[in-house]
Amino acid sequence: MVIKKIILYLPRANVVWGKYLFTYYIINNLIFKNMKKFTLLATLAAAFISLTASAEKMDKPFYRMTKFATVQDATVTAPETGTNPITVKSNKTNNTPRYLYTTWGADAFAKMPATLPDDTYSFSTKFKIASDAGVSNCLEMVLYPVDGTWKLTHMRLFNSNDYFFRFHQAENCNTETNTTTLYVNGDINKDAETPSASDGDADWNFGQKVGTPVEVSVGTQYTIRVDVNTVNKTAVYTIFNNDNADAVVATGSKDISALATDKIGGIWFNTSGGATYEFNDMKLSTVQDGPFANTPRADLFHVQGQERDFLVQFSEGEVLHWIQLGNATTATEEELVDGQEYTANFSESKDNRDFEEDQDLAGGSKIIYCTKSGDLRIWTTREEDETNRCDEDLVVAVECVDIVLPAPKATITNVSEGYGKEYTLSVDNSEVLLTPTITIAYKLIQGSDVKEAKVLSGAKVSFTGAGRLEIYSLDNSHGKNPYYTQSETVIEENNTEYVKATSRNYAISKEEAEGTMEGFTKTEIVDNANKSHWDRIYSTQSYGKNADGNIVVNDGTVELTEIKTGFGFYDASAIGSDNAKWPAQMLNKEALETAALPLVLPTVGVVKDVDVDASWHLFPLEGLVSYQVPQTNLAVNIDSKYVSDDAAKPNFYVVHTRGGYDRPDKGDSNATTVVEAGKSYSLYRYDTAICDVTVYTYKGFVEGSGATEVAAPKAVVEDANAPIYTIGGVKVSTTVPGKIYIQNGKKFLAK
After folding, report:
1. Are 446 and 465 in contact, with CB atoms under 8 Å apart?
2. How many whole angstroms separate alpha carbon 691 and alpha carbon 170?
3. In the beta sheet, which residues pair with residue 503?
4. Angle 37-52/15-28 helices, nearest 10 degrees?
5. Within its chain, how far is the Cα of 44 from the centroid?
6. Are 309 and 299 in contact, with CB atoms under 8 Å apart?
7. How confident is the model over 209-263, as pLDDT tens digits?
8. How much is the pLDDT for 731?
9. Is 80 exposed, middle or buried (0-12, 13-18, 19+ CB in 10 A)?
10. Quick one: pLDDT band at residue 550, thresholds 50, 70, 90?
């Protein structure tokens, strides 16, 4: 066998890559396959000679990942600033995985060298499981190719075998040893026996123990490195323990010749319930002869009036340079002059975000103060050679202007008879630079009674009588010298009196569910697949809090508080079996438009060839449910006769819901939503029940006055053949006198 090349690199500042590259070339050139003893000895000797040559090889990044583009139900610190570490925490505490991912695509390779050193480029990141709640086994990381096609969903693993590197956790964290096992580079196999009803594909079994097992510790930082050889079509991974002298934890090689591209296009990360993770220094790079100056990173972290402050990070052995934008004074009273070039050495640069010197910091952290709009130019040179300048200067567009805060909103979230209303105050800070905490100041005026307060977004303000609400946004976090400018004042007049027009309770009794109801057919729900959460609430399942405040199963052996028990239609042991069943009333097809009034239901889920609707049910003690798994966010409306004829005085309907998640171990999921009549209420999915609805109209409103009465549509010759729909969106061939229909986008009263 011919050995093409063996190199052992030992960087001055990072011994770990020397260990890694030796491992890489042994794997990549198949040294251990059919190798004789003298060949291996010669290989090791060659490696030793290479080491003594003191060639310094270093990672030279050509792309740095600074944010996760898409985040679902997770909190990510500084996702758009590149601040390290990027901390990720799942907001879910149950066993449902939540994902985040970023796609950098082909653009990330624009600055990759035309000729790759040793035909290889690398992905690397430092990774830590900062804390593990021990709730689920959903942790997963995948490096996927540019322009890959797959389905990204939070309920399953990354459902494709087109990857460069992956790991997934197939068992919960061991709380005694504080360790967990990751299975590396295991293809996920489809479970053809359980096709998913939601998309027709076979489910991906995230519980399989597939791949190479690697044990990692919670709280330990690891480096994950993947070297992609574009000629040999291999992706060699190595995992180092940074907290143990960069010891190699695992290494292996994957054949990527079947992939459509040899370029890594992004990272997918599935979070485990309630756990916290850290990423640091995530980049694409090549190993090149060094040392060399690297392009610095600048993080806008402070806004004060027209001043913009950047925390700049640069590497050891480098000198930071920048051209000052505007005259400024630093925390140490140093005067900076607009247009002048300034420098900072690594060891002297220990600024932190509190505008103080951090003595525990090695260096390389410098605040640059800007007070003038323009392009902030930053670059680095090597300490020993100022002509060794970074490949590309960092140019940051800076806009030094006062920022006016967005105006707040007052949304009606509850209505009662008379002038009683509840407003929820909110303000959107997502588009404000650095997304500051915004305070809302309000003045509530009811006759001679005036109440003023400063609150945060989400606070509620209630009227008991006629009056006025005045609100504006302000920066209340920085004392007497706000960093942001106060918003305009918004005024809400509460001068319309309302009356209760009608209401309906859909949460029928068990006896009603087992009887006969007009417009419905008696049926029985059997949830042997344990697909929803209704099976739990209808069982005897019981939970409560123990002395430590933890929610545990109530088995009667321990004294618990805040106990919550299901309805008890059957024993909890029946969950997931044919005995998990309860009576219900199924809506008849022909009664779709009338049986749920005053609500008008969408036609999604209607089975055309049978006499009943396959979706809508009345569940005992819970309410109106669209028990059809694939259907989500269904548009439910109120009867159009309650739509206001005065835009200044809208009518409302209040929807009270309860969810299948309102089960013994999950607390109360009761919610009320106020919707303007004429607008839709979005029913989330099959695990949410509409318990009841109440309609409020302004005093003096005449039912049906909001519908426009016009001549029969056939009188309009040019639109005579236009289709006609019910107010609920059902296409009809004939009309019934006295009912409201829609044709050509307009409502009319049939005659």
Report:
1. yes
2. 39
3. 694
4. 150
5. 49
6. no
7. 789 999 999 999 999 999 999 999 999 999 999 999 999 999 999 999 999 999 9
8. 62
9. middle
10. confident
